[in-house]
Amino acid sequence: MNYIKAINAFYDHQEFNPLTSAAINLWHSLMHVNNKSRWKKEFTASMTVLCLKSNLSESSIRKARKELVEKGYVTFTSRQGNQAPIYRILPLYEEMDNENDSVEENSGGKSNGSDTGNTNTLIKQNETKEKEVVVEKPDDNPHHFYENNIGTLSPFIAEKISVWCEEMSDELVIQSMELAVESNKRFFSYCEGILKQWQQGGVRTLRGAERAQQDHKKKRANSKQEKNKSVFEKLREEVQA
C-alpha cells in the first residue's frame, strides 16, 4: 500500500462519502496498526489496541467500525473466542485512479503533443520520487526483527509488540529482543520483563536502556561477589572451628 496515496485518496473520498470524526479516528488507527504489520493485505487488531490508539470507547469503536464497513472503507471479520478480528483496509486510491481513467475515456481521450509531453514529464517525476523513498530495513521493524531472530510471529505476539511499541518505542522493543537473543532467551515474555523494568525505571531512550543494562550487570556482578565472599567466609569459619 502506498501510504501517501492512501491518505490523499481517503480525504478526497470524504468529499462524496463523508465520515464521522470517530470513524476517521478509527481509520487512522487501523492504518497505524497495518503499518506496524508491514502493510499486510489482512491484519488483526484487538479492541484493546484500538481503544489505546484511538482513545475511543469500545461502543464508539463498534459504531465507527460499522460505519467504515458500510461506506466501503474497510472490511471486518470477527473470530471465535478471544481472537482479535481480521481487518482489511480497502485501497481507495485505486478506485480514485480508475474514476479518473474513466473520465479521460469519456472525454474522448484526445490530447495534443504538449499534453503528452507534460504527462511523460509527470510520470518521470513520480518515478524519481518513488525511487527516492527510503525503504525501512527489515531489522528496523520490531515485527520483522522478531520473525528474523526469535520465532514465528503469531497475531497474539504481534499485538503485544504493537502495544509495547506504543508504550515505549520501536527502538527499545528491538533492543529488548536483541538482549533476549544475546541471552539465548528467545521468547517474548523475556523481552516483556526487560521492557517492564525499563518502564518502571523511567527509561525512554536507547542510551537510557544501555545505562540500565550496565547497572543491572554491575548489580549481578556485585551480588555474585558477595555470594562468593560469604561462601569463602563460611568455609574459613568451618576450618577454624
Automatic annotation (TrEMBL):
<dbReference type="InterPro" id="IPR053162">
    <property type="entry name" value="DnaD"/>
</dbReference>
<dbReference type="Pfam" id="PF07261">
    <property type="entry name" value="DnaB_2"/>
</dbReference>
<feature type="compositionally biased region" description="Basic and acidic residues">
    <location>
        <begin position="223"/>
        <end position="241"/>
    </location>
</feature>
<dbReference type="Pfam" id="PF13730">
    <property type="entry name" value="HTH_36"/>
</dbReference>
<feature type="region of interest" description="Disordered">
    <location>
        <begin position="99"/>
        <end position="131"/>
    </location>
</feature>
<dbReference type="InterPro" id="IPR034829">
    <property type="entry name" value="DnaD-like_sf"/>
</dbReference>
<feature type="domain" description="DnaB/C C-terminal">
    <location>
        <begin position="145"/>
        <end position="212"/>
    </location>
</feature>
<feature type="compositionally biased region" description="Polar residues">
    <location>
        <begin position="108"/>
        <end position="125"/>
    </location>
</feature>
<protein>
    <submittedName>
        <fullName>DnaD and phage-associated domain-containing protein</fullName>
    </submittedName>
</protein>
<dbReference type="InterPro" id="IPR036388">
    <property type="entry name" value="WH-like_DNA-bd_sf"/>
</dbReference>
<dbReference type="InterPro" id="IPR006343">
    <property type="entry name" value="DnaB/C_C"/>
</dbReference>
<comment type="similarity">
    <text>Belongs to the DnaB/DnaD family.</text>
</comment>
<feature type="region of interest" description="Disordered">
    <location>
        <begin position="207"/>
        <end position="241"/>
    </location>
</feature>
